[in-house]
Specification:
Helix content: over 70%
Shape: globular
Number of domains: 1
Radius of gyration: 19 Å
Oligomer: single chain
Low-confidence stretches: 209-213
Order of helices and strands: HHHHHHHH
Distance between the termini: 48 Å
Strand content: under 5%
Largest sheet: none
């Protein structure tokens, strides 16, 4: 009984990190930025800027991970913590495992994109969108498994579908990947927005105590 209670408490503390939808919102924003990045690589091909973007590929995606962490922390300090409090996670907790999963996914995605971007494919089949969709689906599925939140399984399924769909739309690797990132960004923004809306309705902002007696 005590063990089950402890496990439930730990699970609840992990779920709390995702209760407000902020993580999905920030992820959605990062995906939109990634879509812009791949789009710029396409429309500015054979230019000096395109060469700079290609050379800074890994730095852009690694920087995106740290930007995501900073944005999440800042938004939670403004929105979540004043309403439902701050939870301090211990090292080795389930919350840390979630971040390890995210970091692993970004590392695999970055390495894979670097490799696949060097492969020339015809418009009939593009490797980048299905690979991206698969990696993101695995990351979202693992988060769902760790948090027991069903919406992440749905997001993982959508990622697979979008990856497969944009592999066959007759665009170049970079342009189809830009379309995938943009579409996935919109999906995450919609999901996060819906969760945040529910959270704000359930937890209104605390009213400041008046100094007047």
């Amino acid at each position: 009984m005590e063990r089950n209670k402890l496990n439930n408490t730990l699970l609840r503390s992990i779920q709390y990190r995702f209760e407000d939808g902020i993580i999905e919102l920030v992820m959605g924003g990062i995906f939109l930025l990634a879509g812009i990045y791949f789009y710029l690589q396409t429309v500015m091909a054979n230019s000096q800027l395109a060469d700079v973007l290609t050379a800074s590929f890994a730095l852009v995606f690694i920087g995106g991970y740290y930007l995501m962490q900073y944005s999440i922390r800042s938004l939670k300090e403004r929105i979540t913590f004043p309403r439902t409090g701050y939870v301090a996670y211990r090292n080795g907790s389930g919350s840390r495992v979630v971040w390890i999963i995210a970091a692993f996914g970004i590392a695999v995605l970055t390495g894979g994109l670097l490799a696949f971007s060097q492969i020339k494919t015809g418009p009939e089949w593009n490797l980048l969108p299905p690979f991206s969709g698969l990696v993101i689906a695995i990351v979202l599925g693992l988060i769902g498994l760790q948090t027991a939140l069903p919406r992440f399984y749905g997001l993982a399924g959508i990622s697979l579908v979008l990856g497969g769909a944009f592999a066959k739309i007759g665009l170049s690797n970079n342009l189809s990947t830009a379309a995938f990132c943009g579409a996935m960004g919109v999906v995450l923004l919609v999901s996060g927005g819906a969760v945040l809306r529910h959270y704000l309705r359930k937890n209104p902002a605390p009213t400041e105590a008046s100094d007047d007696k």
